[in-house]
Each structure stands twice: as C-alpha cells, then as structure tokens.
Fold:
Amino acid sequence: MSKKCVFVTGGAGYIGSHCCVELLQADYDVVAIDNFANSRHTGAGEAPALKRVEEITSKKLTFYQCDLLDAEKVNAIFDKHQIDYVIHFAAIKAVGESMQFPLLYYKNNVIGTINLVEAMKAHNVYHMVFSSSCCVYGDPEHLPITEDHPTGNVTNVYGRTKYLIEEMLKDLTHAEPKWNIISLRYFNPVGAHPSGRIGEDPTKNFTNLMPYIAQVALGNKPHINVFGGDYNTPDGTGVRDYIHIMDLASGHVAALNKLSQEHFRYKTYNLGTGEGVSVKQLAAMFERVTGRPVPCLVQPRRLGDIVSMFANASRARQELGWTAQRSLEDMCRDMWRWQTMNPRGYQDDCDAGAAATTGQAALAKAAAVTNGVANGVSNGVSGH
Ligand code: NAD
Ligand code: UD1
Structure:
C-alpha cells in the first residue's frame, strides 16, 4: 500500500516540528510549509528544526517556505503533491501582541485558514486536524474541563481567532458533508524531544512559565515571578495541565487514525494529562531534576489570568485510544536537555547555513570571474 501524505502547516514551529517526528516514524510522507514568522531559518530558506527532524528519524520530508496568505503558492504546492491529510499548526500565538495588533491576528490566523481549506477543497482533500487551544473555554465553569464545556468566552484576540476558526470549521462541515475535521484543544505543551535535538526556539518574545523557569535555572534570571500567591488552589499559585510535547505530537497521529477510520464531519478532543500542576510545583520539580535553584518571588496576580485549568482527557482516551504517557519529571528533564545542549536554540545552524551560503556565493563569483562571466551570480541555493 502506498504511503499516505500529510500536509503540515507551521511545520518549522515548536509543535509542528515534534509532530513531524511522530508522522515520519508512523510512516507518513510529510510535506511541510512555514513562513518563519516565529521559527528560525537559514539564508537558504531551510528550517533547521526540520533538518534535525530528518536526522532524528533518518527519513526525508519535503519543505517549502510559504505563507498561508499566499493562496496561489499554497495551491501550487497542492498541485505538486498527492495530499491525503492536513495538520494545520500555522498561526501566530502571542496573547499580548494579539491585543495590540488584532487585525494582524485575524488576518493571519483566520484568512490563512480560509486559504488553506479553499486549497484543500480545490484539490479534493477533506481531512484535517486543526490546532486549537484550551483557551477557547475561557474561565472554566467546571473542572476538569470536558469538551462540551461552553466555548467562546475568550478574553484575548489570539484565543478568539481559535474560537472563530473552530466555529467556521464546524459551519463548513455542516454545509458540506465531505469534510472530516478534528479540532485538538491543547492544554499547556512543554518539554522537548528526548534526544535534545529539537525543542522550542521562538523568534518572538514569549512569557510562558516553563521557558522562564529554564532561564532561571540557567542563571540568566534571578528568580521567577509568580503571578499571584493567594488563589484558591492548594498552594495559592495558578494551576495548569502541562503536557509533554511528544505526547501532544502522538495525539496527532491518533487523530489521523481516527479520520481514516470514521466519517463524523467534526469533532473536538482535549489533549492534556488531566493533572493540575501549580506554578510552585513545576518550579520545585525543575529544581529537583536539574539540581539548580529556581527561586520563586510572589508578585501580584496577572491581569486576566485563569486560576485553574486542567483537562478531562477521557474522550481522547476512549475514542482516539490516546493517553499522555510522560510525567512532569520527563517534561522538565527533556526541556533541560534541549536548553543545555542548545543554549542558542537553532541559531548555530542558521549561522553555519549563512556561512555556507556566503562561501558558495564567493566560490560561484570566483568561478564567474574566472570564466569571464558578468556579475549577477545567484547563491545557487534555495529552499522550495
Ligand atoms: P510556533 O509559533 O512555534 O509554530 C507556529 C508556526 O507557524 C511558526 O513556525 C510560524 O512561523 C508559522 N506560521 C505562522 N503564521 C504562518 C503563515 N501565515 N503561513 C505559514 N506559516 C505560518 O507555535 P506552536 O507552539 O508550535 O503552536 C502551533 C499551533 O498550536 C498554533 O496554531 C498555536 O496557536 C496552537 N497552540 C499552541 C499552544 C502552545 O502552548 N504552544 C497551545 C495551544 C494551541
Ligand atoms: C498562556 C496563554 C494561552 C496559551 C497558553 C499555552 C496568556 C494570557 N495565555 O496561558 O493563550 O494557550 O499559554 O501556551 O498568555 N506564570 C507565572 N509566572 C510567569 C509566567 C506564568 O507565575 O512568569 C503562571 C501563570 O499565572 C499561570 C501559569 O504560570 O498560572 C502558566 O502560565 P503560562 O505559561 O503563561 O500559560 P497560560 O497562562 O496557561
């Protein structure tokens, strides 16, 4: 039987790159795109994260530098490949930035998705997994959160784009029965691939807790600022459902299996562990795993913060046959391995790529001069 091919948007990003490992290992062909809005690239338009994915898996994937807002290019890629499934990670996700630049967020996330589903339809591809977020639930009315908890009471623009896209996809599947779409609502993905070769390396500033804790453990920051110490939680600090990035990635393979077996038009699944962990508990586990101090300084509450959020993940267990396998200790250990092995993230690969590109250009120029060819030498290297 021929291999199935998955089109992955935002493949160079944190979750996309880890998911590509799982897809290749599950024997899918992968065609990935990214516009590098929040991921590193070499001067040659390649994604170092995905080069490392190829090393980890000893398999090849196809990558294109492409923006979802460029509908023509997206369609041209669909023309070239026989796509069976789409996993749609590409989005911008910085909550603070989304409040400052709402149109940028609606345009990129919502119009990008419209372009994608239009290209899919034009190429007879109707199976998609969409990256949604637990933030669509807003402030929880009950815990743990089940998928039938009301959605839409979202307090920021980023979260609203996720909610709007979910509603749009639901409407689409109601109107056109061919569609089969799963929205995966992620809780708080953390950690890295256990090899330490790939991990989170955003180009935009970010303020999530786990990367901040790692900076403290590295000695780059004196302490973490704990946003609120008087919440109604066991130790007074905020509670979240942290999930290992490789568990999250394997949830996507489980979702593709489901899409291939059943036609249900539209479904939502929580991807979380079901365990609530407080800020202080996470800091303490990081200290234990790394042997480095992570001092906690309690600060005022963060505006608009949610007190506690954790999943009821039983629908995914029952219907996808998926459960998170890795512990909080694994999350901290793997995060630390990535951080200490790659203090500059993928920057070294980018620098090496730039040096190689410059070197090739110099060689080509020298050859052109030798051959008496006029100026106008290209570097001869390009991504797709
Ligand atoms: P990420 O920023 O690391 O990855 C997203 C990738 O999409 C980036 O590489 C970015 O360059 C790319 N991208 C953005 N806009 C694009 C466009 N118009 N065309 C092509 N590529 C584009 O983020 P991530 O953490 O890997 O998140 C992946 C998805 O999961 C996103 O949709 C995000 O909203 C969602 N999500 C993430 C989290 C989290 O905590 N990381 C939680 C819930 C949901
Ligand atoms: C954030 C995003 C959310 C996104 C989620 C997963 C906001 C408002 N929300 O939520 O949209 O889906 O990440 O990526 O940014 N904390 C501290 N000190 C810090 C940082 C965080 O005490 O320096 C606390 C927070 O108050 C919270 C917990 O740590 O209790 C986790 O915070 P964070 O990592 O920002 O994730 P979320 O708040 O879940």
Notes: Residues 347-370 form the longest helix (24 residues). The two ends are 28 Å apart (CA to CA). Residues 369-384 have pLDDT under 50 and may be disordered. The pocket of nicotinamide-adenine-dinucleotide (ligand 1) is lined by residues 9-10, 12-16, 33-39, 67-69, 89-93, 108, 112, 131, 133, 186, 188-189, 202 (CB under 6 Å).
